[in-house]
């Protein structure tokens, strides 16, 4: 008895609804295109929210498309760039679970198969509708015998498949929830990275803002150790919306306040603040989860920078009126959180390690004392762990070590690294 993962395509595996995107391609020269786009989007949403039968929605949308095979080729190129970020970075999960992952969609194989096949998903595990074409390659309909073209189609299909094991469903729409309602799956995860439908989320077993979150709560291998939606990003003061949007796109749990409130700072892993809203040294010392500060302006004083460093908190700052800082600060913060890069920090030693594939990256921040690196490597040696890359930089206050190691070690190793004398902060990055 195994486990199976039933994954939706539109607005789940990809960021968009494919038929809506196809309409924008096929109708771009139609003078009434905006009106038709709206009709198609309304039909999509009505079905996804359970307000219209899927059969009626699908039939209505296909009639409005006026599409052909050439339009489908353009759509595939577009969809390949629109794979949801957290699915894209977890391609190794799909490679290692090829027999257990199924794409089940009310969309169409003609555009789904070429997109998901690049993620090691087997063609025989892709279940979707198929178009019917005329002699000129125009879409004139679809196979109405396919259960996925019908109301409750996913339920009908799963009954036919009769999979032997626990089944987990991941999707954003009402047709995905119907699997849970039918009793055919163990848990339904409402996927909200791209769109959140209240009529679906309120009935879900779990709301998952990213695929990382799904993998995390089910203790499955993943590209990053801790889902970003679980990391609180506190934004304080007047910060440009574009900077905030970059952090939202990364998936952080955003909280926006006009002034620093200690209860929110204590929970934050990331702080972005205006120049006039920097934390005090005392506030910083009472923020144990804080990893990085991005200041849209210059750091207030050397004492704050030094105290942050002593507490293992990196600071990136930039002149207040430098036009680049709207982009510069979020990018530096994201590069540190994703890869451990400290380049252009005002209080950490400089390190720009290359990304290593098929390895786990560990970050160890410690007081600058002799012999710490030897102790770190001794832990790896005792557990026969192969090091594929290691980097150490120091300043008078701290040593900053990044170690890339082969996967497949006991979690006891992480506890031993944390307990090394003079350790300030330790983090499993990915």
TrEMBL record:
Catalysed reactions, semicolon-separated: O-phospho-L-serine + H2O = L-serine + phosphate; O-phospho-D-serine + H2O = D-serine + phosphate
Pathway: Amino-acid biosynthesis; L-serine biosynthesis; L-serine from 3-phospho-D-glycerate: step 3/3
GO CC, one annotated term: cytoplasm
Keywords (A to Z) from UniProt: Amino-acid biosynthesis, Coiled coil, Hydrolase, Magnesium, Metal-binding, Serine biosynthesis
Record's keyword annotation contains Cell cycle: no
Matching Pfam families: ACT_AHAS_ss, HAD
Keyword Cell inner membrane carried by entry: no
GO BP, one annotated term: L-serine biosynthetic process
Entry's EC annotation: 3.1.3.3
Protein name in the entry: phosphoserine phosphatase
Residue ranges occupied by any ACT domain in the UniProt entry: 361-430
Coiled coil start-end: 55-82
Enzyme category, top tier: hydrolase
Molecular functions per Gene Ontology: L-phosphoserine phosphatase activity; magnesium ion binding
The protein's required cofactors: Mg(2+)
